[in-house]
């Protein structure tokens, strides 16, 4: 069983930055692929970014490429999402997700956090 707790959400002006953190209680954290997703009310959950358990390979949604960066610290059992040049359309609840191993970084996550709100004002 893996528990995930996100922190770092908040209100920021367009063009600003936020850093989300997700702390995991997981044995062998280094064997987990980790992802960030986001969801607005009445919309489907959307893939944002992920980092693989293999060589820290990363993958990003086209909408955030060049602006967001995902990273992990296996010593701290934590994954981060650095968000820069934020836009009002980035406003969503952001969720951290984890799965053991995994090759397809965009799907099949078993564990989810409770979410953290990110609001970008224009």
| Morphology call | globular
Roughly what fraction of the amino acids lie in strands?
over 45%
Major sheet: 7 strands, mixed
SSE order, as H and E?
Answer: EEEEEEEEEEE
DSSP strand tally: 11
Chain-averaged pLDDT: 95
Structural class: mainly beta
C-alpha Rg, in Å?
Answer: 13 Å
Helix content: under 10%
Distance between the termini: 40 Å
Number of helices: 0
Any low-confidence stretches, pLDDT <50, length ≥5? Answer: none
If you had to describe this structure to a student in words, what would you say it looks like?
The protein has 122 residues and is an all-beta fold. Helices cover 0% and strands 52% of the residues. It contains no helices and eleven strands. The chain has strands at residues 3-7, 10-13, 18-25, 32-39, 46-51, 58-60, 68-73, 78-83, 92-100, 111-112, 116-121. Strands 2, 4, 5, 6, 9, 10 and 11 form a seven-stranded mixed β-sheet that branches. It has a four-stranded antiparallel β-sheet with strand order 1-3-8-7, with no helix packed on it. A hairpin with a 6-residue loop joins strand 4 and strand 5. The radius of gyration is 13 Å and the shape is globular.
Task: Give a nutshell description of this structure.
By secondary structure, the protein is mainly β. It has strands spanning 3-7, 10-13, 18-25, 32-39, 46-51, 58-60, 68-73, 78-83, 92-100, 111-112, 116-121.
């Amino acid at each position: 069983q893996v528990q995930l707790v996100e922190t770092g959400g908040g209100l920021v002006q367009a063009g600003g930055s936020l850093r989300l953190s997700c702390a995991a209680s997981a044995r062998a954290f280094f064997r987990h692929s980790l992802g960030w997703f986001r969801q607005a009310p009445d919309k489907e959950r959307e893939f944002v970014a992920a980092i693989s358990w293999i060589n820290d390979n990363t993958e990003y949604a086209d909408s955030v490429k060049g602006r967001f960066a995902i990273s992990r610290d296996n010593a701290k059992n934590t994954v981060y999402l650095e968000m820069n040049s934020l836009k009002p359309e980035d406003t969503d609840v952001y969720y951290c997700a984890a799965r053991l191993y995994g090759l397809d970084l965009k799907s099949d996550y078993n564990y989810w956090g409770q979410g953290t709100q990110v609001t970008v004002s224009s």
